[in-house]
Specification:
CATH architecture of the largest domain: Orthogonal Bundle
Strand content: under 5%
Number of domains: 2
Shape: elongated
Low-confidence stretches: 1-5
Order of helices and strands: HHHHHHHHHHHH
Distance between the termini: 33 Å
Mean pLDDT: 82
Helix content: over 70%
CATH class of the largest domain: Mainly Alpha
Largest sheet: none
Radius of gyration: 28 Å
Number of strands: 0
């Protein structure tokens, strides 16, 4: 029994029906949102002084709910609960629970608060569309290596050229190769890049060609290649999901569904007979 919120078959038992039900999923999502709100309120010194104990109680209660959720899912998969870890998203959720168990006292207090913040990331695993986007980004990493290599070559060539051209007239931005690379990173983000260009143009009127060409190549070409790779992988992921949804059920799945239907009909017949 798979639904849009789970990629693990939790079976048709009582616990299995609970953990894949809509109300259970929406309830956990509401708890995650509540946890995110409490974490945000806890950053206010005034609110923390007044409601610090309540915030701490709520955090511990929410952690307990997450632990119960994991135990219910493990119980639904009995007698083989290790299937719970066959899902990468379940591993992600379980890891957040483990990290959240760090005591928030002493030297570990800051780490414990950051661990609580990680619980907000569970919103990603709660929404199938967000999971699809994250999965797409991860799958896009191998395809991006070539784009990164191209961007690295472009940065290196322009950084060396920029050092030789401008390090004497604008040492603030070009005095070393490392500083030149940081300057180019600033330019490619389009953050006040014209200030750097005008500083160079005060001495070399033709410096605009260097900067405009780099912005054109680095921003409008290479960055768009990143976007193209991600969109291509997103389209492939959506097509893969459609193919999975369109796959005809296997013989075993049909027999299992038939057996469940027969059991349901037998239970309905028994109730009708008792009602008579």
């Amino acid at each position: 029994m798979l639904n849009s919120t789970s990629d693990v078959d939790y079976g048709d038992g009582r616990l299995g029906r609970v953990v894949v039900s809509g109300w259970f999923h929406h309830g956990i999502t509401a708890i995650i949102l509540l946890n995110a709100a409490i974490i945000g309120l806890d950053t206010s010194e005034m609110l923390t002084n007044r409601f610090g104990a309540a915030f701490e109680f709520a955090n511990q209660l929410i952690l307990g709910i997450f632990i119960v959720e994991a135990l219910l899912k493990l119980g639904a998969l009995a007698p083989n609960p290790w299937r719970y870890f066959s899902s990468g998203w379940n591993i992600f959720d379980f890891a957040i629970i483990v990290v959240s168990l760090i005591p928030d006292t002493g030297e570990l207090a800051t780490l414990a608060r950051l661990a609580r913040l990680m619980r907000v990331l569970r919103l990603v695993s709660s929404f199938p569309e967000l999971r699809l986007i994250v999965t797409t980004l991860i799958n896009s990493i191998p395809s991006m290596f070539n784009v990164v290599a191209l961007l690295s070559i472009l940065f290196y060539v322009y950084a060396v050229a920029g050092y030789h051209l401008f390090h004497e007239v604008d040492p603030t931005h070009w005095r070393t190769l490392g500083i030149a690379l940081l300057t180019l990173f600033r330019i490619v983000t389009l953050e006040d890049w014209t200030d750097v260009m005008y500083a160079a143009m005060d001495t070399y009127w033709w410096a605009w060609a260097y900067f405009v060409s780099f912005v054109t190549l680095g921003t409008f070409v290479v960055i768009n290649l990143f976007i193209a790779v991600v969109l291509n992988n997103l389209d492939e992921a959506k097509q893969e999901r459609l193919r999975e949804l369109r796959e005809p059920p296997t013989k075993d799945e049909i027999l299992e569904e038939l057996a469940r239907t027969q059991a349901s009909l037998a239970e309905l017949r028994r109730r009708l007979e008792h009602s008579d």
